[in-house]
């Protein structure tokens, strides 16, 4: 039994820090190669295990400034009062023009920018089962020190309050289930979820 091909559409996946956006996007990448996933640029250093060009394109502040000046980013933001992140514009436009479904895994600020520039995009909020679980995941991944964790948890509280701005919410209780729900959005043809 073969599934219908993914439709050509843009879905923006956003949510609070440590909710598992990258893990869910990696599941989509591994299991559904027909869905193209944008690789963001960032000025932060790579975390252990991250690969340049796969997880992010790790670039200098000067290169980031050049992309901003040349309108080469679909969206960009300073995240957690520290590093800058952005989505290169050209690859997104090229994949959509070629009829390939595309996923942007970005932060809340970036999602708001994409909502303005590409209103046809389906905005999907990835939520944790609870704030306590989000905190447990952030501590458990062990990639940030205590100060950075506290900064990210403050940011997460603000990000969670923005859930109502999105078209649909997926609760990330289980990565495979969240991945399947996200892929179903590509295949369903639903453009907006009404309340």
Strand arrangement, major sheet: 2-7-1-8-9
List the uncertain runs: 191-195
Mean pLDDT: 88
Largest sheet: 5 strands, parallel
Would you report the number of β strands?
A: 9
- Overall structural domain count: 1
Distance between the termini: 33 Å
Tally of individual helices: 7
Report helical residue fraction.
40-55%
Order of helix and strand elements from N to C terminus: EHEEEHEEHEHEHHEH
CATH superfamily: P-loop containing nucleotide triphosphate hydrolases
Write down the overall geometry.
globular
Derived from helix and strand composition plus strand pairing, the structural class reads alpha/beta
The whole-angstrom Rg is 16 Å
- The CATH class name reads Alpha Beta
Strand composition percent: 15-25%
Q: What is the CATH third-level topology name? A: Rossmann fold
What is the correct CATH architecture?
3-Layer(aba) Sandwich
Describe the structure.
The chain is of the alpha/beta class. The chain has one domain: Rossmann fold (3-Layer(aba) Sandwich). 41% of the residues lie in helices and 18% in strands. The chain has 7 helices and 9 strands; from the N terminus they run E-H-E-E-E-H-E-E-H-E-H-E-H-H-E-H. The protein has helices spanning 21-31, 61-69, 89-97, 108-117, 131-141, 146-160, 175-188, and strands at 10-14, 36-37, 41-42, 57-58, 73-78, 84-88, 102-105, 122-127, 168-171. The chain has a 5-stranded parallel β-sheet with strand order 2-7-1-8-9, sandwiched between helices. Strands 4-3-6-5 form a 4-stranded mixed β-sheet. Helix 1 packs across helix 7 (175-188). The protein is globular and about 45 Å long. Residues 191-195 have low confidence and may be disordered.
């Amino acid at each position: 039994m073969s599934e219908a091909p993914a439709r050509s559409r843009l879905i923006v996946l956003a949510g609070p820090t440590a909710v598992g956006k990258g893990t869910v996007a990696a599941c989509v990448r591994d299991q559904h190669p027909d869905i193209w996933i944008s690789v963001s640029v960032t000025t932060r250093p790579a975390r252990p295990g991250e690969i340049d060009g796969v997880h992010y394109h790790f670039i200098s502040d000067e290169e980031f400034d050049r992309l901003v000046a040349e309108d080469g980013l679909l969206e960009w933001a300073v995240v957690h009062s520290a590093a800058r992140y952005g989505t290169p514009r050209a690859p997104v436009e090229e994949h959509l023009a070629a009829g390939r479904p595309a996923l942007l895994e970005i932060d809340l600020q970036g999602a708001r920018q994409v909502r303005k520039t590409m209103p046809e995009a389906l905005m999907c909020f990835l939520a944790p089962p609870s704030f306590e679980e989000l905190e447990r995941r952030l501590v458990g991944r062990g990639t940030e020190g205590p100060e950075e964790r506290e900064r990210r948890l403050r940011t997460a509280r603000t990000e969670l309050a923005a859930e109502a701005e999105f078209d649909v919410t997926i609760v990330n209780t289980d990565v495979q289930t969240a991945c399947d729900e996200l892929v179903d959005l590509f295949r369903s043809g639903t453009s907006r979820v009404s309340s």
